[in-house]
Amino acid sequence: MVTQVAKPPASEGSVRHRVAELLQECQEALERSHDAQAGGFGTAPKFPSTVNLDFLLRRHAREPGAHALARSMALGQLEAMRAGGIHDVLGGGFHRYSTDRMWLVPHFEKMLYDQALIADALLDGFQVSGDEAHSSTARGIFTYVLRDLTSPEGAFYSAEDADSEGEEGRFYVWTPAQNTELLGEADAAPSSPRVGGTARRHLEDGTSHPPAAPPPT
Description:
By secondary structure, the chain is mainly α. It has helices at 12-33, 50-62, 68-83, 112-129, 132-148, 176-183, 185-188, and strands spanning 97-98, 106-107, 110-111, 159-160, 163-164, 167-168, 201-202, 208-209.
């Protein structure tokens, strides 16, 4: 018979030390993949990655003086998402992900769980920064969910399809004629800040999906 010898339990101090090491390793991994110019992590496609934001904002909250970079990375992504095409600035809510590195052109699907997680991250961002743009964007998410993702019986729909009339994003894109009709020729021009300036992305069929603001330079 083989007799197993139980290992002595790890001391509380050694456990805390290992947890601290793991947290630091997680942050360093995010720092390596962080896109300092465009916000977020990695390259295209870019997802909201709300788990990353949750980790970074809580890490900063525990030790604000020691983790300013965690705060900066999280808020930088939230600001890029709010200003980018992933954010539906007209109808509220966020699309599934950005097809490009700069957050300009989204995959137009909208997921219920994304709305919940992004709203949570935005409200955390507001608590950390005091920037009311984050809380206002969260309220836009709630308005969208109550209007478009809530059934007459009070249940929630899980998602809104990317396709409209058999084409992806048809409901969300604008033709040049529609832009001109709505804004007038001057404001509908590609260089106009009303449609995102140089960030205004023309899609393959000639339509456009303007983000809320020009991309960072």
